[in-house]
UniProtKB/TrEMBL annotation:
The organism's taxonomic lineage, starting at the top: Bacteria, Pseudomonadati, Pseudomonadota, Betaproteobacteria, Burkholderiales
Positions of the UniProt region annotated as Disordered: 136-166
UniProt keywords, alphabetically: Membrane, Transmembrane, Transmembrane helix
Protein known as: Transmembrane protein
Comp. bias regions, Polar residues: 155-166
Annotated transmembrane regions: 21-42, 48-69, 76-96, 102-123
Biased composition (Low complexity): 140-151
The keyword Lipoprotein is annotated on this UniProt entry: no
Length: 166
């Protein structure tokens, strides 16, 4: 009997890039749109919130492109997972740096984002073979091998047809 969580993981893993990109885009839009109000609530400067929002929007756009990309290279998924780990670290450093001025809400946002993004990065790394089944370049090699093989068959088929015609 399968473990009950196995089905959830199998359904969740292929959707990780969509979850990642939509969460980043949503967070970026909300933080950017409400930066002045959030600044008062979070005790964080507006320019810092705008930079965080811009990073989320840029990252979300890139991960959305990756989510839409069929036959995505595994290296791109690995890079995305590492970028998530990096951003989680940045959020922790910002929480440490801003800890004296930030409110509990501001610290909760920064540390919550670190946990969320770090977890996504870990899951993307764990399921990188699901998210990008073929290693980098393998699909291109496979396609070129198939076309070379088909071309070889056409040539040999033509040669044998010519031989039969004689």
């Amino acid at each position: 009997m399968k473990h009950p969580a196995t089905g959830v993981r199998q359904r969740l893993a292929p959707r990780l890039l969509w979850i990642d990109s939509l969460a980043a885009l949503g967070a970026g839009l909300l933080v950017f749109g409400f930066a002045p109000a959030l600044s008062g609530l979070y005790g964080l400067p507006v320019p810092l919130l705008q930079r965080i929002a811009a990073a989320n929007l840029l990252y979300g756009s890139g991960s959305l492109g990756l989510a839409c990309w069929r036959g995505r290279p595994r290296g791109a998924v690995q890079l995305l997972a590492l970028a998530n780990a990096f951003w989680a670290g940045v959020c922790v450093l910002l929480a440490l740096q801003q800890g004296a001025e930030a409110s509990g809400f501001g610290l909760a946002h920064l540390l919550g984002e670190a946990v969320f993004v770090g977890t996504l990065g870990a899951l993307e790394w764990r399921y990188r073979r699901v998210l990008a089944p073929q290693p980098d370049g393998h699909q291109a090699t496979r396609a070129s091998t198939a076309s070379s093989s088909a071309a070889g068959q056409r040539i040999s088929g033509t040669a044998s047809s010519a031989g039969r015609a004689k």
